[in-house]
Design brief:
Strand order of the largest sheet of chain A: 5-1-6-13-7
Order of helices and strands of chain A: HHEEEEHEHEHEEEHEHEHEEHH
Shape of chain A: globular
Structural class of chain B: mainly alpha
Largest sheet of chain B: none
CATH architecture of the largest domain in chain A: 3-Layer(aba) Sandwich
Number of domains of chain B: 1
CATH class of the largest domain in chain A: Alpha Beta
Number of strands of chain A: 13
CATH superfamily of the largest domain in chain A: Periplasmic binding protein-like II
Oligomer: heterodimer
Number of helices of chain B: 9
Order of helices and strands of chain B: HHHHHHHHH
CATH class of chain B: Mainly Alpha
Radius of gyration of chain B: 20 Å
Radius of gyration of chain A: 23 Å
Number of helices of chain A: 10
CATH superfamily of chain B: MetI-like
Distance between the termini of chain A: 75 Å
Shape of chain B: elongated
Helix content of chain A: 40-55%
């Protein structure tokens, strides 16, 4: 009798678990509806920024060269950070009138739409799909997929990959791109970039492929590796702001253009990205 | 409810992974059994240095994660993912098998060995003719456990691009953005291997029990 009761309890519990799981997936749609609803009472982000005299940027803090937390100072440093500071200097007249919030590729859109951050400067590629969700500025960094090899390797570019082993990361667009562009290469996929790079270092593959921005970081870490063959896809990075803030986008674009014209952009670029 | 198009559209990837999982498991199963028996013999042989060596092997290998052994062969010895994973699986499982076999042999009453030796058999003969036949029956169930674990542990190959079932499951999942259904099918393929293994072990157990 007791045993029977246990079984009933168990099956009820597992039923509950299934219902909860199902609830998770339908919850997404509900959130979407809420976002749409709140769009109506948008106050202009540019006005807000000028009022509080500070811009809150969402930046990465785990991406070498672009936004990486320096463990000894606790500050995030990188190309994205310096660009954000320079933009603040143009718009608000002081490069210290910025605040940085850590974002990841998964969290950045939600944080932007919630108003937690004013703009995203976090290695974000401008795509058609994303343009439906947020507004982008002009391109501030031209990334593209490339190849990292050991110096002196006979892999010189995308055309010399026949019969070679190329390492990539599971689920990345670069692993799909490389299969299309170099169908005769053998692609091996790993859990993350550090494992893929470790595999390359121990000679498990001839090249590693992903965005050049990430590869530069690896080459920076271990100078016996270099990028070859230029880029074979286009991944233009843009600064994202909440949809419907044309004024803020225009202001950022104006500031970006000033940075490029004055040579400040090139200075920042050369500081982080060494070819 | 289950989306079978996931299975049919990616069948070639599932089957390739399945093939490699069978291959890796089969090799590791045979090799770890042989290695496990050897280590068990070392641990109970009446020669002290061999005992120490066997004990050191078992205690060292079974107390570190399989993942780290795999990385050692993959990154350290630079074997390909499939070989590194299979070798790690063999070594890891052999330490557990050695323990199961040693426990089985030790559970045969001491008097059996003493009686065999005093009736004129050598140590080797006594082992082979008296002790081992009795030990086998005791060892079968735990060995079955180890083999089933081995098949499931072969999913470690996925981490070092060993092209096994789990690796291909990861790829399909990351490409289709479907998680649950993809791995349900992966689990089904593992069951195709582990259920017959369970039944086989159960059958052997029954047959040996009858011979009592």
């Amino acid at each position: 009798m007791l045993k029977k009761k246990k079984w009933v309890k168990l099956s009820l519990l597992s039923l509950l678990a299934v219902i909860l799981l199902a609830g998770c997936s339908s919850g997404k749609d509900a959130d979407k509806g809420k976002e749409d609803g709140s769009k109506g009472k948008d106050t202009d982000v540019l006005t807000q920024v000028k009022e509080k005299d500070e811009i809150v940027f969402g930046v990465k803090n785990d991406t070498r060269l672009f936004g990486l937390k320096n463990p000894s100072t606790g500050e995030v440093e990188g190309f994205d950070i310096d660009i954000a500071k320079a933009l603040a200097a143009e718009i608000l007249g002081d490069e210290n009138k910025v605040k940085f919030k850590e974002v990841t590729s998964k969290t950045r859109m939600a944080l932007l739409n919630n108003g937690d951050i004013d703009a995203i400067v976090a290695t974000m590629t401008i795509t058609e799909d994303r343009k439906k969700e947020v507004d982008f500025t002009d391109v501030y960094f031209d990334a593209g997929q490339s190849l990292l090899v050991k110096k002196g390797s006979d892999v010189k570019g995308i055309d010399s990959l026949k019969g070679k082993k190329v390492l990539a990361v599971k689920g990345s667009t670069s692993s799909i791109n490389i299969r299309e562009k170099a169908p005769e290469a053998q692609v091996l996929e790993f859990e993350n970039y550090s494992e893929a790079f470790a595999a390359l270092k121990s000679g498990q593959g001839d090249a590693l492929t992903t965005d050049d921005s990430i590869l530069y970081g690896m080459a920076d870490e271990d100078p016996s590796y270099e990028l070859v063959g230029g880029t074979f896809t286009e991944e233009p990075y843009g600064i994202a702001v909440k949809k419907g803030n044309e004024d803020f986008v225009a202001e950022l674009n104006k500031a970006l253009k000033t940075l490029k014209d004055s040579g400040k952009y090139e200075e920042i670029h050369d500081k982080w990205i060494k070819h | 409810m289950l989306d079978f198009s996931i299975l049919t559209e990616n069948l070639d990837m599932y089957l390739l992974g399945f093939k490699n999982t069978i291959l890796s498991s089969l090799i590791a199963l045979v090799a770890s059994l042989i290695l496990g028996i050897l280590v068990a013999i070392m641990r109970i042989a009446p020669i002290k240095p061999l005992n120490w060596l066997g004990t050191a092997y078992v205690e060292f290998i079974r107390n570190i994660p399989l993942l780290i052994i795999t990385f050692f062969f993959f990154l350290g010895l630079k074997l390909s993912g499939l070989y590194a994973g299979t070798l790690a699986l063999t070594i890891y499982t052999s330490s557990f098998i050695a323990e199961a076999i040693r426990a089985g042999i030790l559970s045969v009453p001491k008097g059996q060995m003493e009686a065999a030796r005093s009736s004129g058999l050598s140590y080797g003969q006594a082992m082979r003719l008296v002790i081992l036949p009795q030990a086998v029956k005791i060892v079968i169930p735990p060995l079955g456990n180890q083999f089933i674990n081995l098949v499931k542990n072969s999913s470690i190959l996925a981490v070092v691009a060993g092209l096994d079932l789990m690796y291909h499951g990861d790829l399909i999942s990351s490409r289709t953005f479907v998680v649950f259904d993809v791995y349900i099918f992966v689990a089904a393929f593992y069951l195709i291997l582990t259920i017959p293994l369970s039944i086989g072990v159960g059958y052997l157990e029954k047959r040996l029990a009858k011979s009592n």
